[in-house]
Amino acid sequence: MTVTLPSVSEKHRVRLQPLELPERLLLGPGPSNAHPAVLEAISRPPIGHLDPKFLELMTEVQGLLRYIWQTDNRLTIPVSGTGSAAMEATIANSVEPGDVVLVGVMGYFGNRLVDMAGRYGADVRTIHKPWGDVFSLAELRQALEEHRPQILALVHAETSTGAEQPLAGVGDLCREFDCLLLIDTVTSLGAVPTLLDEWGVDLAYSCSQKGLSCPPGVSPFTMGPRAEEKLARRKGKVANWYLDMSLLNQYWGSDRVYHHTAPVNMNFGIREALRLIADEGIETVWKRHRDNAEYLWAGLEDLGLTCHVPVENRLPTLTTVRIPEGVDGKAVSRQLLDEHGIEMGGGLGELAGKVWRIGLMGYNSRRENVDRLLSILADVLPRS
Ligand SMILES: *Cc1c(COP(=O)(O)O)cnc(C)c1O
Questions:
Q1: Is the pLDDT of residue 384 over 70?
Q2: Which enzyme class, named as a word (predicted)?
């Protein structure tokens, strides 16, 4: 049988050369460079997402995530999507319409939590800190007393400011006020200590492309027993089919029922990324990030530059550096990218035009990268 295929218009035809990319050292707020072994894992031929080998891999990834997050949470999975998808998963599964959700806003990502919680029908309350600052336990207590929320949401590592929110004691406080603790660990997981169970965290999320040395695409999510109970008790369905943990639980739990096709190659990648961290040992990984950050801070100071965040709240993964008076911050970033292939971030929101953001995350947290950046900055910046 001969079938005549329809003729097509050439109007939309595009002819391109095979993909070519410049080499980049990504020292901005993310993505960070992926580890070569992770890229190698991702390039393997896919297998079926219900293949027994893949099911085994899913279990391995869950175990590795529990290790680096330091949690026993049964419901710990990589969400298919970027960090924002995992963020939305925590909100969608915990917020019921009318719930009071208190968000501690100390930067850009706190505002994203506010936006998301509002979309799921929460009665959103906020407390604020200037960008670069963090909340004290006393301030959190006072806000819990005033607002009596069902959920307190905080950003552990505010990538927009470079500040680390201390979390010791916050979970106990939340239990006292019978509220769940939800935290953003996108720029801390696999780089800065995240002691979820010790801190009493009920819901947390992260991403693959910052501390984990994997490209963006799958994002860790975890939910503890108190959050699971709230999910089981809810009156209506989770208002997001894709991220509904009562459904995803059947895929990632013991039933292994098809929900959606997991991005298998990205799961190869995150397995390798997490395996490398577990091999190095999570405490060694935390120490490496801390040491390289301190080395960077000392070098910046030697160049006459000032870090925006006081050292006691400064995040090892992301450093905000004040742009000196009279220096065109954007032009310096552009020169670094064009002439040296190095990406640095600019300021957001309150810090727009005021700081550069330097990331040392995962595979990129190495002394040689700090040396390279510092020597270029020394050349590019005017001598003071
Ligand atoms: C990067 C980031 C996100 C968002 O993650 P995406 O992967 O960009 O969706 C959320 N929170 C924080 C603190 C981040 O740094």
A1: no
A2: transferase
